[in-house]
Amino acid sequence: MPRRRLRNRPRRIAAAVPWLLLLAAVFGPYPAGAAARRAGSAPPIRIQSDRMEATEGAGRVLFTGHVVATRGELRIEADRMEVFYSADKSEPGAGGRRIRRILVTGGVRLFQGERTARAREAEYLAGGEERVVLSGNATVTQGQNRIRGQRITVYLDEERSVAEGGPGGRVETLVYPEE
Predict the structure, then answer these.
(1) Which residue(s) pair with 110 in the sheet?
(2) Which GO terms describe its molecular function (predicted)?
(3) What pTM was estimated for this model as a whole?
(4) Which of 151, 156, 152, 142 is nearest to 15 (CA)?
(5) Per-domain residue ranges for the chain?
(6) In DSSP terms, which residues pair with 42 in a beta bridge?
(7) How far apart are CA 118 and CA 108, in angstroms?
(8) Are the beta carbons of 108 and 118 closer than 8 angstroms?
(9) HEC letters along the chain
């Protein structure tokens, strides 16, 4: 038995690697990755909501009520989205504003092709360690494959993901290997 288990281990790891890379693609603000965003080739972001409130001095824009944000193939739906930015005059476009953080709350749903994700909250953090954190019963699916945990963190520049079960909970991964 131990021998068979060791023989199948590389196959199981190989099946999981594309799934973890998929997480980075789904939750990045633009699926082509950080390099494309820095090169300026990313498509525009469109946000629709019932209400928008911008506070220039605080560097904050709040969207509430039936929020739908799209960028390329990526679509985000939620009750509320808060965008925090800082003035960076060296940054081209967007009036010299650089996004520092985006907090999306209330029935968060993300869609991109056959990939979906659901959570109570999603947070994008820019800067040194660029990452997306899904928390509150987070689930990511592609086709029949699924990862579920209390919290899923995707480190965008590293193409690395960490799923956590939370207090008393466990991470559940369901992968259907390709034949």
Answers:
(1) 76, 117
(2) glycolipid transfer activity; lipopolysaccharide binding
(3) 0.72
(4) 142
(5) 2-174
(6) none
(7) 6
(8) yes
(9) CHHHHHHHHHHHHHHHHHHHHHHHHHHCCCCCCHHHHHHCCCCCCEEECCEEEEEHHHCEEEEEEEEEEEECCEEEEEEEEEEEEEECCCCCCHHHEEEEEEEEEEEEEEEECCEEEEEEEEEEECCCCCEEEEEEEEEEEECCEEEEEEEEEEECCCCEEEEECCCCCCCEEECCCCC
Residue with tokens 């929020």: 67
User: Could you report the per-residue pLDDT of 81-121, keeping only the tens digit for each?
Assistant: 999 988 655 555 555 678 889 999 999 999 988 889 999 99
Tens of pLDDT along 37-56? 455 567 888 999 999 999 88
Give the bridge partners for 122, in sequence order. 104, 134
